[in-house]
Specification:
InterPro entries (chain A): RNA_pol_sigma-70-like, RNA_pol_sigma-70_dom, RNA_pol_sigma70_r2, RNA_pol_sigma70_r4_t2, RNA_pol_sigma_r2, RNA_pol_sigma_r3/r4-like, Tscrpt_reg_LuxR_C, WH-like_DNA-bd_sf
Family (chain A): Belongs to the sigma-70 factor family. ECF subfamily.
Protein name (chain A): Sigma-70 family RNA polymerase sigma factor
Oligomer: heterodimer
Strand content of chain B: 25-35%
CATH architecture of the largest domain in chain A: Orthogonal Bundle
Pfam families (chain A): Sigma70_r2, Sigma70_r4_2
Domain HTH luxR-type (chain A): 122-149
Shape of chain B: globular
Radius of gyration of chain B: 24 Å
Distance between the termini of chain B: 53 Å
Helix content of chain A: 55-70%
Number of helices of chain A: 8
């Protein structure tokens, strides 16, 4: 893959990948690191990167592993990340919303990622299978279990009717990768 | 349970794609790309198709599934190619018309461009997010750039047709495209097909319009303040466009800075869906409004 082709893939996948990272990172700084590392890996392994829409899924798969590596290191800097989140928050979520978010955060990484790929990235089971490198049947089964575990965890916390939309959002207008 | 849980999780997203103002061609995006591509050079493709010499007319090569088959005349003074095929794409030239068949439009874009390049044609196949209902369909076909060597006297013309067979659930989506005329030979071709947009991802075909073109939203004629209140009430965000269109569809529009807001008493003249979470609102430009950036 030449530089021009790579630039095309970069242009097509930049925002989806940034969104993927921002939704999973505690700060724009961490998200920028994930995006930069993911594209750097993609450039080094351009020969393996599929073309077109598949490239986005392939990059999600790379970003997932970059993020996992980052989290292993990030645990040593929890205070710094928490402070950045606090700076970026535009209004604290409601009590129930916060509880739902906490329960979601406590789910196993694999459950959380599956649920997020559906709800945040809007991927189908087939697309998730490409990201995770497994069959769509496996995705279907794991997703079913993840949803059940989430519902059980919500009920255990006394949340039977969680609000359909949670308004916990972050201000990112100034978060360019500069 | 499924949709309710998915909605609940969707609501937990701290960032929607529409919130992200950084673009690949912004200063940050460009700097990152430059930093990456000046790094370690990419490893050559492991399973690259063998580079075959041009063959004598009529000869074929079928050594491997990935091998390319080229039909033309060899040597330095080669005649134009008449056909080309690789594992993903087949092109036939009939007079001034190019006919191409792609096995899977959503997977073979690179081979598609490479195949056309064999004929000196600059053709790009793009996959873009589109509004619901436009997925798996051809969004547009047009020239890719200005005619090479400048616009010939009398202009250029071209014909195109495309068929994309891609019902929901089908994994491989064959695409047939016919391109004819000087327009595409000199200006290349940009073939755009739609995919499902991610939540909040702006649709490629979200163009400014006059009147109400957003589902269930009747805001044309209302004030900016009223429109924003209604948009907010529905949990959506709004992006403004300055412009004016006539009844025949002619007119112009441009995007002011993202943070710009018109005065609350001004009237909305157009409303359209930009993404699953945002709408576009148009107002007629007034003195003092942001001006369009000159192009070129």
């Amino acid at each position: 893959m030449g530089e021009d082709e790579f630039a095309d893939v970069y242009a097509a996948t930049y925002k989806p990948l940034l969104g993927y990272a921002l939704r999973r990172c505690g700060s724009p700084e961490d998200a920028a690191d994930v995006v930069a590392e993911t594209f750097a890996i993609a450039w080094r392994r351009a020969a393996e990167m599929p073309a077109g829409g598949e490239a986005r899924l392939w990059l999600y798969g790379v970003a997932r592993r970059v993020l996992a590596n980052q989290r292993r290191g990030a645990r040593r800097h929890t205070m710094k990340t928490a402070a950045l989140i606090a700076e970026l928050a535009v209004g604290a979520p409601s009590q129930e919303d916060s509880a739902v978010a906490e329960i979601f955060d406590r789910l196993p990484d694999r459950d959380r990622e599956l649920l997020a790929l559906v709800a945040w990235e809007g991927l189908s089971n087939t697309e998730i299978a490409t990201v995770l490198g497994c069959s769509s049947n496996t995705v279907s089964v794991r997703l079913h279990r993840a949803r059940k575990r989430f519902v059980r965890a919500l009920r255990s916390a006394g949340i039977d009717h969680p609000a359909a939309a949670v308004q916990a959002r972050t201000v990112l207008q100034g978060s360019e990768l500069t | 349970m499924t949709s309710r849980i998915d909605e609940l999780v969707a609501g937990l997203a701290t960032v929607r794609d529409s919130d992200i103002t950084s673009e690949p061609d912004s200063a940050g995006g460009r700097a990152l790309l430059a930093a990456i591509t000046t790094g370690k050079a990419p490893v050559p493709r492991r399973h690259r198709y063998p580079r075959l010499p041009w063959l004598v007319a009529g000869a074929t090569v079928a050594s491997a599934a990935a091998a390319a088959v080229v039909v033309g005349v060899g040597g330095q003074n080669s005649a134009p190619l008449r056909s080309y095929a690789n594992a993903a794409v087949a092109i036939d030239v009939k007079g001034t018309e190019y006919e191409v068949e792609v096995k899977n439009a959503y997977a073979d874009q690179r081979e598609f461009s490479e195949a056309f390049a064999k004929f000196g044609l600059d053709v790009r196949l793009r996959i873009v997010p589109v509004a619901p209902g436009g997925e798996r369909e051809i969004v547009q076909i047009g020239p890719l750039h200005a005619p090479k060597g400048g616009m010939p006297p009398g202009g250029v013309s071209g014909t195109s047709s495309a068929v994309l067979k891609c019902p929901p659930g089908q994994i491989a989506c064959p695409l047939k495209v016919r391109l004819g005329g000087e327009m595409f030979r000199l200006g290349g071709a940009d073939i755009v097909i739609g995919r499902k947009a991610a939540p909040g991802e702006v649709y490629f075909d979200a163009n400014p319009v006059q009147g109400d073109r957003a589902k269930d939203l009747r805001l044309t004629g209302r004030t900016v303040a009223q429109a924003l209140a209604e948009v907010l009430r529905r949990g959506l965000t709004a992006t403004f466009t300055l412009g004016e269109f006539k009844a025949d569809g002619s007119g112009s529009s441009w995007d002011p800075p993202a943070t710009w807001r018109p005065a609350g008493e001004r009237r909305i003249t157009g409303v359209w869906t930009r993404s699953s979470t945002s709408v576009g609102l148009m107002v007629v430009p007034q003195k003092g409004d942001p001006q369009p950036h000159p192009v070129g």
